[in-house]
Design brief:
Largest sheet of chain A: 11 strands, antiparallel
Number of helices of chain A: 9
Radius of gyration of chain A: 21 Å
Order of helices and strands of chain A: HEEHHHHEEEEHEHHHEEEE
Structural class of chain A: alpha+beta
Distance between the termini of chain A: 68 Å
Oligomer: homotrimer
Strand content of chain A: 25-35%
Largest interface: A-B, 44 and 56 residues
């Protein structure tokens, strides 16, 4: 038998645009048990300092059974599982929306993921198309822990292949805050120790329009983003294969966007130390690529404050989290006077954060 | 007292060729308890995706008491312990053979190692000799978990020292498959979920002669191989000391060969996702050195398929696993028409893999 | 509201010299539960090989409830917590003294830290001053695990601010050995297996004046020191922000001094394998900065041997531990004939080590 034949038979070359169908469901491979080892690596890779995720007694005192793992680690692990089926042949990750965190994940929980194709649109060049998937993460026992929609531009195997009926899903730009974080334990605020958490500022202390410079910064190394991205079992070759990247337009390995998310979130501790939980990501855009050697800064703006139904203990803050590279965040770089993304902006995220009231 | 005297008294300078005797046994230092922390690092350093090692419920469903640690992590930890006694003054690791995995290792198990000298042969230049050792790894309770023979070229302290009677051990080039993997729990295949494992292909789906391009690749960084090699408490200075290496012929730190093994094994998931266990390494050669910055690809060839006595649940596949650097594995680079190792080949391994039937 | 106003309101810009008062106490943020994940990373980052910290059965056999975490990991975690309150605006860490380890820390323990200002002295240039703090680390239940004094040079916000009454604490240069390590379990030496520990040399085998070349060396990478320093939640920007450092005098990121401590301690295994516990640090100086790419060697000199009250099982050795960069430690580089620090010396530490008798 020929090499190509046998290779085709066993090697997963990923799906191409014409392989996707509306309603198609992928049960993604490799369930993953999250452990305190992953939590330690998460601290080492990003420097997270939120007390609820950092200390068992702090989490237990306020009502958690134990310290939950960082919300974005759950996001990365679930996202990573979807890569071999959805985006191995992706040209670009275009965006995500309607990301909701549905249950806390604890060390010992095992995560699995599935994705449903909810939109398809071929590009006018006939060479590629946009695939929209709704990805759901589940933990042992089947409880949903995370759901989000993302859309990616995927190559066609055969440009001549007929285009599908275009379907573009209706996505809300803002998750309704009323039903956020219903899965969180009821917090006993009398036992939430603000000095240990790192700040006295609660939900009510933030004003809409307020901007916060997170001041600190992190320079990213190749080994750091590779270790993190492998930890999530994300196999997208642009992150790992310098030999191939050197022959492409970027010349370098591209940092997985989730690394920028997690670094910006960790930096946001300085100014939002009590925002202990991300309840939802309304939308996110990776405005520009990040490479090893880049130094990331971050700032936040408070967009909205919302109460949560039946919860007197916590409130939601909608914030814009912006990460910039190789320039200070002190002047809050965001848009040019022409409304374009300002120089150095790499991430523009719209979040619902949960804080004690 | 003089510095040299006291240094000699306390510092381990390693053994030289004339220090070894046939039948000599070394109980190696530093027992090591393997934990979920090591497992997380193993994922982060190599991107392993085999479901049995990645998820407790998957392993338990098919009959394991819990998820075992990756076979090669056990190999690296046991190998690492032998370095201070056997190969601190090694010029080169020449090869290994008869490597058999004898029992699963779980987080919480503590590994120790011992080596017996089974062969000695002075080189004609009188400056060095080849030492053959049989190294055995044991876990808490004394059960053997791993055994292999390796041979290394070791410097002599005094070229004038008399040569030993040459003894060259008889090594089989192929471990008998009939007795492989007898230590594995009996698998309940009805509960082995192929989509979660990442491939539908079982033992019977592979044909002798079939070649599989594992397609993906990894570029290796200094920090990655150093962290991994330290994790195994391997102290060989060529991996860590740039100041000394810069003065030698290589000019660079040499990557521990076990890193290449583990990366090639992790890459082989794409094409061999159900090969959840390495039962034996018939032989292995590090054909060329690997350095930070190299990008590793891998491919496999099926050499033989064998049934295992008394086991209807699993079968053994003998495969050649080849790792190449800085060139694609799509054309299966291996030998030149003259029968020499092809350009870019760094590892040529002969394995017995276990798959569900 | 203006950006600056809101930023000032929420962002921690750190304390300046005139913000400190004698007797002021800081309860530092972010309690941290230490896990086997942190232990695995500690092994991977430094290559520690001391049997008591490496293997549960070894520790339990001699009387520990379980394997304790490395003493210096406890030091780094406690030190890291103090950074946002004490040294975010530090120009330099000038030294530490009276560091005593007061109780073993085990995986699962949660560490908190507090610091009291015990000294203040403005510099003659009126632009900065020296702040002395006594920092105490505690574990779950409130037991003290570590206490040390450190002094740092901190910027003034307003050079015009009036100087405080100078207070300089009296610090002993040598912790009294009689009361060291009283918290350690009584060791059953009949079960301390010297070959597994890596050396036959006990407390009584070391002579005052004896010098030991630890022979091995480690080249340090940016990713390694950043991962380690983040793991300890140390936020000092000089370690992480290449964009800012490139504009300063060093041009590079500065390696957190604790990394050099831990690497030198790990290297000291070769020659001091049975020095399983650091009981105290009498004093320490970071003689010169360390950067990624530097290769660290280490040597030790035995300064003093002391018995410990009521303990026949263990004895204390006072040693000087010297780390040098980019030159061999074989000739024990320390001081010039003029009494200055010798070329390449980066760390000069005065320790009390505990060994079996």
């Amino acid at each position: 038998m020929t090499a190509n034949k046998t290779t085709a038979a066993k090697t997963n070359a990923g799906n191409f645009f014409e392989d996707f169908r509306i309603g198609q469901v992928f049960e993604h491979a490799t369930p993953r048990t999250i452990t305190v080892g992953d939590v330690a690596l998460y601290h080492g890779l990003y420097g997270a300092r939120f007390a609820v995720q950092s200390a068992e007694p702090f989490a237990q005192a306020i009502g958690y059974p134990r310290a939950p793992v960082d919300d974005l680690m759950v996001f990365h692990v679930v996202f990573g599982k979807s890569v071999p089926d959805i985006s191995l042949n992706a040209i670009a990750n275009l965006g995500y929306a309607e990301c909701r965190f549905l249950a806390p994940v604890y060390p010992g929980d095992t995560l699995t993921a599935a994705s449903e194709v909810v939109g398809l649109r071929e590009n006018s060049n006939r060479k590629s198309g946009v695939v929209y998937v709704r990805t759901t993460g589940r933990k042992t026992g089947g409880e949903d822990v995370l759901q989000f929609v993302r859309w990616v531009m995927v190559r066609k195997r055969e440009p001549a292949a007929p285009p599908p009926e275009p379907v573009i899903p209706q996505l809300v730009g803002r998750v309704d805050p009323a039903h956020l974080a219903q899965h969180l334990p009821r917090l006993d605020l009398s036992r939430y120790v603000y000095p240990l958490a790192g700040s006295p500022h609660r939900w009510g202390d933030y004003a809409v329009g307020e901007r916060i410079d997170h001041a600190e910064a992190m320079t990213l190394e190749e080994a750091e983003h590779q270790i993190a991205t492998r930890l999530y079992q994300n196999t997208a070759r642009v992150h790992f294969n310098q030999h191939a990247q050197a022959q492409g337009p970027l010349k370098r390995r591209l940092v997985y966007g989730g690394i920028v998310l997690s670094l910006a979130r960790a930096l946001s501790f300085n100014g939002l130390a009590n925002a202990f939980h991300i309840a939802a990501i309304n939308g996110g855009r990776h405005v520009a690529p990040t490479f090893a050697g880049d130094t990331l800064y971050a700032w936040s703006e408070v967009l909205e404050a919302a109460e949560i139904e039946l919860r007197q203990d916590i409130g939601a803050l909608r914030t814009r989290l912006v990460a910039v590279k190789n320039r200070s965040s002190a002047e809050f770089p965001h848009k040019t006077p022409q409304g374009e993304d300002a120089d150095g902006v790499v991430l523009d995220l719209d979040l619902w954060l949960i804080l004690p009231r």
